[in-house]
Amino acid sequence: xxxxxxxxxxxxxxxxxxxxxxxxxxxxxxxxxxxxxxxxxxxxxxxxxxxxxxxxxxxxxxxxxxxxxxxxxxxxxxxxxxxxxxxxxxxxxxxxxxxxxxxxxxxxxxxxxxxxxxxxxxxxxxxxxxxxxxxxxxxxxxxxxxxxxxxxxxxxxxxxxxxxxxxxxxxxxxxxxxxxxxxxxxxxxxxxxxxxxxxxxxxxxxxxxxxxxxxxxxxxxxxxxxxxxxxxxxxxxxxxx
Length: 241
Fold this sequence. Notes:
By secondary structure, the protein is α/β, with parallel strands linked by helices. Helices cover 39% and strands 25% of the residues.
C-alpha cells in the first residue's frame, strides 16, 4: 500500500529525514515512536505530500507522489489524516464538518454526504452530537469528530499524528478505543504516538526513530521485551512505567 524509498529531507541545513526505507502492506498497522524532533511527524506528512522532500520516492497504492497537483489530490482522497489538534471548522456544526469534504472533493450529493457523516459519527459513538458546534464538545469528542471526518472520505489509509497528545488524560482512552476499533476492522494505519499500550494492542510493527533515522523496527513482542539497540532501550526506559 505504501512504499518509501531512500527518503531524505532537510529544513535548511538540518536534515530531518535520513535515508528512510519503509514498506507498509494493505491492512498493516504501524506505530511510530521516538523523542521529540526525531522526524516522526515529518515522515507521515510526506505520505500525503504535506511535506516535500529533497531525495527519494513515496509510492501510495502504486501511485508515485510528484509535484503534480492532480496526483497529490488523487492520493489525498485515499489517505485520511488526523492531527494533534482537531482542526475543525468552528463555524460549522459537527455534521457540516463531516459533510464538507465528500461534497466538495468527491462531489457526492448532500443526502449521500449526510448519510456518510451520520454513519461515521455513529461509528465513533457520538451521533447525538451532530447538531452541536465544536466548542460545545470535549477535546476527546472533538478528536473523535476529526476521525469521523477523515473516514467520511472513505480512505484506504489513515495517518494519525500524535492524536492524543493534546488531550486531558481522561479523554485519551475514548480516542484510543476508537482507533482500536478501526484497527480491528483492517484499516491500514500509521500512527505517531507515545501510547505504548495502544502499540502493544494493535500494532503489527513498532518503529523507533531518532535524529531522522529509523533506529529499530520490529513486532511489538520483541520490540518491548528485547530491543536490540541501546538508544531504543534508553527511550523505552523513560516512557514505560
